[in-house]
Amino acid sequence: MMDDLFSAARQPVLLAPGALFLPGAARAMQARLMQQLHEIMAQAPLRRLETPGGRRFSVEMTNCGALGWQSDKAGYRYESRDPLSGAAWPRIPDNWLVLARTMAEQAGYPGFVPQTCLINCYAPGARMGLHQDRDETALESPIVSVSLGVAAQFLFGGLERTAPTRKLSLLSGDVVVWGGPSRLFYHGITPLKPGHHELTGDRRWNLTFRRVRAC
Ligand SMILES: O=C(O)CCC(=O)C(=O)O
Ligand SMILES: [Fe+2]
């Protein structure tokens, strides 16, 4: 009953032109998504990438899809092979593609076919500073972001780093889609607070689906 009241209060919210928050939209799939995540990580393990400045991200990452996001001293880029193994990244599971397409469609972006899914894992204290997702040239395609596990505070700003930010609690199964006029909006995650989720323990996971190149 409480749960129903709670979810009833969490309706889709237009965050900015082109940006839609879809609370609980992936909730029914969360256990299956976590199971599939573990299968993907058995092939492409999590790692803490180096920033171009020589530091380490606090978030652990891996990828699936035709391309995978990579960072090191040479900069940010996409790679078609996992630099750890030299093998192709694991495929994006079909049900993930359907989820990404359906979410994008609900936000007004029909026909979204992602080429990559970046998998982010946050332990307590891990964060992602305000940034733009701009290592892609397919800027006509949106970003579809799915949260799993411990709740996090998402910051969503504007085209300038200094624009005011809106703070949003992202719970397990919540989805955010941004594209069109907000495709390059600054966003980030504040340091993860200690918490517990039955599927993920003290971790928070995020799946970020992107199209990198137009074709
Ligand atoms: O973890 C999140 O919700 C945001 C992740 C993100 O912004 C990114 O991977 O570029
Ligand atoms: Fe991002």
TrEMBL record:
GO annotation terms (biological process): oxidative RNA demethylation
Protein residues bound to Fe cation: H131, D133, H187
Gene3D superfamilies for this protein: Alpha-ketoglutarate-dependent dioxygenase AlkB-like
Keywords on record: Dioxygenase, Iron, Metal-binding, Oxidoreductase
Domain Fe2OG dioxygenase residues, every copy: 113-213
Cofactor requirements of the protein: Fe(2+)
UniProt entry tagged with the keyword Iron: yes
Binding site for 2-oxoglutarate: N120, C121, Y122, R204, W205, N206, L207, T208, F209, R210
GO cellular component terms listed in the entry, alphabetical order: cytoplasm
Top-level taxonomy: Bacteria, Pseudomonadati, Pseudomonadota, Alphaproteobacteria, Acetobacterales
GO MF annotations in UniProt: broad specificity oxidative DNA demethylase activity; ferrous iron binding; oxidative RNA demethylase activity
Keyword Metal-binding attributed: yes
Annotated Pfam families: 2OG-FeII_Oxy_2
Cofactor note as given: Binds 1 Fe(2+) ion per subunit.
Protein name, entry field: Alpha-ketoglutarate-dependent dioxygenase AlkB
TM helices/strands, residue ranges: none
InterPro entries cross-referenced by the UniProt entry: Alkb, AlkB-like, AlkB-like_sf, Oxoglu/Fe-dep_dioxygenase_dom
Species of origin: Asaia bogorensis NBRC 16594
UniProt: substrate binding residues: W69, Y76, R77, Y78, D135, R161
